[in-house]
Write a structure and sequence with these properties.
Keywords: Glycoprotein, Glycosyltransferase, Membrane, Transferase, Transmembrane, Transmembrane helix. The chain has eleven helices and nine strands. With about 375 residues, it is an alpha/beta fold. Bound molecules: 2-acetamido-2-deoxy-beta-D-glucopyranose (NAG) (4 copies).
Length: about 375
C-alpha cells in the first residue's frame, strides 16, 4: 500500500512541481522581458548621452587643434623680441644688458644677419631722402638708429624709414669724450637686436657710394672690422697723449684714426663692455685730446689689431689741410666725382685689391642733395 499510495502522491507532487516550474518559467521570461526592456531603455538613453558626450569631446578636441594652429610655437620668440627703442634704461643699465653674448656660437634658428646703420647727428638728417631711396626694397636686412641732440623735437613722417628710429640721446660736444659715449650708446642700442651683425657709424653729412645689395654683401662677407688706425708723430698725433694715461695706455700704443667706423658684432660687444680703457679717456683725454679720434684706434691696437682692416670705409678729403675735411657743395657733385670715389682699390679679406674701397663718403652739405638725388640712383644702380 505504501508503494501504491505513494504513487499518486508522487504524481501529484510531480504535477505540482511541474506547474510550479511552469510558473517559474513564466516569471523568468517575464523578468527577462522586463530586464531586457529596461536594459533597452537604459541603453538607448545612455547611447544618446554617449553620443552627445562623444560629440562634445570631439568638438573640444577640434577646439584644441584649432588653437594650436592659430598660435604656432613660442620657441625663442619672446626671448628674441627686440625691446622698445625709447626705453628708460640708464647708460650703465643699457651697456650691461647690451654686453650679453651667447656662449653657444651656432644659432638654433635661421638667422638673417642685418646691418645696423647708426646715425650720429646734431639735428635733422638732410640726406634722408637719398637714404630713403637707398633702403627701399630691403626690409629685414637693415636696422636704423639715430642719436640726435636731445632738444631736437621734429618728428619724421610715418612712411619714412627713419620714423621712430631715434634712441634715448644725450648732449654731445665736438671732440669731447661724450661723443664716444654717444657712439657706445648707439652700439649698445643696436646690439639689443640679435640679428644685427655689422655696425656702421654715419653722420648727417654722409652718403652711400654703392647700392644696398653691394654694401650689404661687402660688410656681411668681410672678415675684418673697419676702424682707421695709424701712429702719427707730432702735435695732432702722439702730442695728444697724456702721461697720466699710463700704465693702462703707453705712448707707443697710442693711435689715431677717423671717428667713422664699421665693426662686426664681436668687436661691438668688446667696445660696449670695455671698463678698462674708456674710463682712462674720460678722465685724461680732455681739451685738445679729441677722444673720438683716439679711443677706438688705441683700444683696437691694444687688443684687437689682428681683427681690424686698419682703414675706414668712409671716403673723406683731407687734401686741403686744417682740422676739418673738405665739404662738398652743390657744384662739386658730378657723375665723374661720384665715379672717382667708387673707383678705388683696397685690400679686402686678405686679397691684395678689391674693386671697391669706400662704401660711404663725407662731407656733403644739404644743398648738394638735389644733384645727388638726380645722379646717385643711376650711378649706384639703386633698386627701383
Ligand atoms: C621744438 O623746439 C623749438 C626750439 O627748441 C621750439 O621753439 C618749438 O616750440 C618746439 N616744438 C615743439 C612742437 O615742441
Ligand atoms: C659672400 O660671398 C660668397 C662668395 O663670394 C657669396 O656666395 C655670398 O652670396 C656672399 N654673401 C652675401 C651676403 O653677399
Ligand atoms: C692692423 O694693425 C695691426 C696692428 O695693430 C696688425 O696686427 C694687423 O695685421 C693690421 N691689419 C692689416 C689688415 O693690415
Ligand atoms: C677706374 O680707375 C682706373 C685707374 O685707376 C681707370 O683705368 C678706370 O677707367 C676707372 N674706371 C671708371 C669707371 O672710372
Amino acid at each position: 500500500m505504501k508503494t501504491q499510495n505513494q504513487l499518486p502522491i508522487t504524481i501529484s507532487n510531480k504535477l505540482f512541481h511541474s506547474s510550479f516550474q511552469f510558473i517559474n518559467l513564466i516569471c523568468f521570461i517575464f523578468l527577462f522581458f522586463i530586464f531586457g526592456l529596461s536594459f533597452g531603455v537604459l541603453l538607448s538613453v545612455n547611447f544618446k548621452n554617449f553620443n552627445f558626450n562623444l560629440q562634445l569631446t570631439h568638438s573640444a578636441a577640434d577646439n584644441v587643434a584649432w588653437q594650436l594652429q592659430a598660435t604656432e610655437r613660442v620657441g625663442l620668440r619672446d626671448f628674441l623680441k627686440v625691446p622698445e627703442l625709447m626705453h628708460d634704461m640708464s647708460d650703465e643699465e643699457l651697456l650691461w644688458r647690451a654686453s650679453m653674448a651667447p656662449k653657444v656660437s651656432e644659432f638654433p634658428y635661421e638667422r638673417r644677419p642685418k646691418v645696423a646703420f647708426m646715425f650720429l647727428t646734431k639735428w635733422s638728417l638732410p640726406m634722408a631722402p637719398l637714404w630713403e631711396k637707398f633702403f627701399k626694397g630691403h626690409d629685414g636686412l637693415y636696422s636704423i638708429y639715430v642719436h640726435t641732440n636731445p632738444a631736437f623735437n621734429e618728428t619724421e613722417s610715418k612712411e619714412s624709414v627713419f620714423y621712430g628710429r631715434r634712441i634715448p640721446s644725450q648732449e654731445v660736444a665736438w671732440g669731447k669724450a661724450n661723443m664716444v659715449e654717444a657712439e657706445r650708446r648707439l652700439l649698445a642700442n643696436a646690439l639689443l637686436d640679435i640679428s644685427n651683425e655689422r655696425f656702421v657709424l654715419l653722420s648727417e653729412a654722409c652718403i652711400p657710394l654703392f647700392n644696398f645689395q653691394t654694401i650689404y654683401s661687402y660688410l656681411i662677407n668681410s672678415t675684418k672690422s673697419h676702424i682707421e688706425m695709424y701712429d702719427l708723430p707730432g702735435p695732432v698725433g702722439r702730442g695728444r697723449y697724456s702721461a697720466r694715461m699710463s700704465p693702462q695706455i703707453k705712448l707707443h700704443q697710442w693711435r689715431k684714426g677717423s671717428q667713422w667706423f664699421e665693426v662686426n658684432r664681436e668687436l661691438a660687444l668688446e667696445i660696449v663692455s670695455d671698463g678698462k680703457y674708456f674710463p682712462v679717456f674720460q678722465q685724461h683725454c680732455k681739451n685738445s685730446c679729441y677722444a673720438d679720434e683716439h679711443y677706438l684706434p688705441t683700444l683696437v691696437n691694444l687688443k684687437f689689431g689682428a681683427k681690424n682692416a686698419n682703414r675706414s670705409l668712409t671716403w673723406v678729403d683731407w687734401s686741403r689741410g686744417g682740422p676739418h675735411p673738405s665739404k662738398f657743395l652743390r657744384p662739386g657733385v658730378t657723375v665723374e666725382f661720384l665715379e672717382k670715389m667708387r673707383n678705388e682699390t683696397c685690400e679686402y679679406n686678405g686679397r691684395g685689391s678689391s674693386n671697391a674701397c669706400f662704401m660711404f663718403a663725407r662731407k656733403f652739405t644739404p644743398n648738394a642733395l638735389d644733384r645727388l638725388l638726380r645722379f646717385a640712383p643711376k650711378v649706384m644702380h639703386f633698386k627701383k
